[in-house]
Amino acid sequence: MAKTLSFIQLSKFYLLLSGLWPFKISDNFLVDKIYRIYTLCQICYYLCVIFGLLVNLVILIIRFDQPQRIIGDINLFIIVFECCLKVVIFQIGKVPFMLNQITQFEDSMEASGDAEVKDYYAKDAIYCRRINVIQSIATIIACASFAQDSVVTFITSDDMSVFKDNPFMHDLWYPFNREDYIYLVICIAFICDMQGLVCNAACQTTLLCLMIYARTRLKILQIRLRKFDKIAVEEYEGDVVRAVKDLIAEHQYLINFVKSLNDRTQHVLLLEFMLNSLCLASGTSQFIIIDTTSGWLATVFLNLYVIVQIFILSWHANEISVEGLAVSDAIAASQWQKQSKEVQKLLIIMMMRAQKPIGLTAGPFFRMTNSTAVQTMKVAYSYASIMTQNMPE
């Protein structure tokens, strides 16, 4: 398969690194067994990180002597908890298994003689890769900016006593004094940062890959519908009825694919809507109490990352709905009026089916559209207002 025709390259890379790749990685039994053990180790590691963050957050809330640190910890806990919960939902819903359908379609595309469809698919595969690269860059910048605050403090400090009451990156609970084992703490912190980056990127790139693929397939269906009469001549020996029936079957498959994707990811999208609002509000509130340049930069880039994530997901979820409705427009733009009554009846039924909206929803509550991103920002603003009003002087 040519590289330009591959949607899943970057997603596969992150899924392998995070231990979430559901398929065999090798015909060698030992290699595959080692990878499954690696996956279990990753799960145990994520649980330990959440436990460490939660215990430390509870201790800080009981003391309530460092409001800035508490807000920062809440922000960090939300991000880590969201990431781990997305992994759980992805695994339970077997979301990565849906990538196999993309691979199968790409294999069939290799043998396709429709140059227009192949060119469009190749163009969208490149687009998918670029969007995932942007998502990856945003994640890397957010993780790097988060790390630099603690690194600057470490470099500029004369001794390690500064870390007695201040965390190094992740504010985890340790069964020992941080300042006495600072190099171990630094090692753990950087592992956490890298694992968080890989885990989040695996979930986000996989979700985006599936969303863009659904939109692309709907667009390809439109291309083929506009010229179904030519396709009947070239691929069906002039049998227009059979050509249209196959296009109807393809449309039904795509409706089921989007429904299946929604069933498996609707709770992830609900988490994105709820927790990203809280995360953005918490990050915004930190601007008021942060007094260092490095801390301010870390908060800015973290907020920018959350905003990028919100708008990218909302935009591509909206695109699925738009392209689903556009199928009926593609039928109207074809030479349907020159066909037999049987073909016209089939196309009318297909058009009626296409006018029923499809798309992704945030839980069972509302459909994800561009307005969802705006609504998320409004909710975040409301949360931030409440947080700042109740913040101690």
UniProtKB/TrEMBL annotation:
A GO MF label: olfactory receptor activity
Transmembrane segments: 37-62, 74-93, 181-214, 269-290, 296-315
GO CC annotations on file: plasma membrane
Primary location: membrane
A single GO BP: signal transduction
Domain of life where this protein originates: Eukaryota
InterPro entries in UniProt: 7tm6_olfct_rcpt
Annotated keywords: Cell membrane, Membrane, Olfaction, Receptor, Sensory transduction, Transducer, Transmembrane, Transmembrane helix
Keyword flag Zinc-finger: no
Compartment(s) of residence: Cell membrane
Membrane-related topology note: Multi-pass membrane protein
Family: Belongs to the insect chemoreceptor superfamily. Heteromeric odorant receptor channel (TC 1.A.69) family.
PANTHER family (alphabetical): ODORANT RECEPTOR, ODORANT RECEPTOR 19A-RELATED
Name used for this protein in its record: Odorant receptor
Organism the protein comes from: Dendroctonus ponderosae
Lineage: Eukaryota, Metazoa, Ecdysozoa, Arthropoda, Hexapoda
